[in-house]
Amino acid sequence: MSILKAENLHKRYQLGKENFVHALRGASLAVEQSEMLAIMGPSGSGKSTIMHLMGCLDRPDEGRVELSGRRVDNLGGRELTRIRGKEVGFIFQGFNLVPTLSAVDNVSLAAEYAGQSRRKAREISEQALADVGLGERLDHKPSELSGGEQQRVAIARALVNDPRVVLGDEPTGDLDTETSDEIIAMMRRINSDTGTTFVLVTHNPEVGEACDRVIHMRDGQVLEEAASG
Ligand SMILES: Nc1ncnc2c1ncn2[C@@H]1O[C@H](COP(=O)(O)OP(=O)(O)OP(=O)(O)O)[C@@H](O)[C@H]1O
Ligand SMILES: [Mg+2]
Fold it and tell me: Which of 6, 87, 131, 210 has its CA 20 to 30 A from that of 155?
């Protein structure tokens, strides 16, 4: 079963009055339940754009997006916010942690945002951080953590609400090779242990190799589907 489906997506970004960028030109993609999928392709080919649409961060101009068999591209802002909080987890390059908050507070924030009480949020955040090997680093601020540890906090934050799908945009982009390998292995393990679906935009061939499948984008379209790994 497809957990996430993008059909014939078009997205244009307006640049001034007359100018626009046609970022997606009929991109289609089906992500299977529990798979780990890599999206690769040249800079500007529309990878981040399709991720934003699939993650309900933005709406397409044409086409449809389905999450767990339900159409989501035409939902209102409130419903989109709810889905984004509960059903999708995000991991971005550069971690996007709040610098003034401790690891556990960064994760808790996402849980509270999804509707958990402060106490419950703290409890599930401690567990999520323990699951990524940071049980001893709960009270460290991002500046007191290594790059790999910060990305693990971001992974814990992406997973804390037990989402159906985790979307990663260059999740190893800011990491050295060794740390990157460690993060790839961790995502692979979480995928095997929990069946959480991962969709990872990447320029890193090692991420591609670790995934079940790699798809390529070019000029706003999904090119081919090739088996990998
Ligand atoms: N907010 C925006 N406003 C205007 N144009 C945009 C915006 N976001 C993306 N674009 C343009 O849309 C096209 C696709 O961008 P996108 O970010 O999806 O590419 P990408 O494949 O993720 O590239 P990269 O590998 O460099 O991250 C590019 O031409 C880009 O300049
Ligand atoms: Mg991008």
Answer: 6
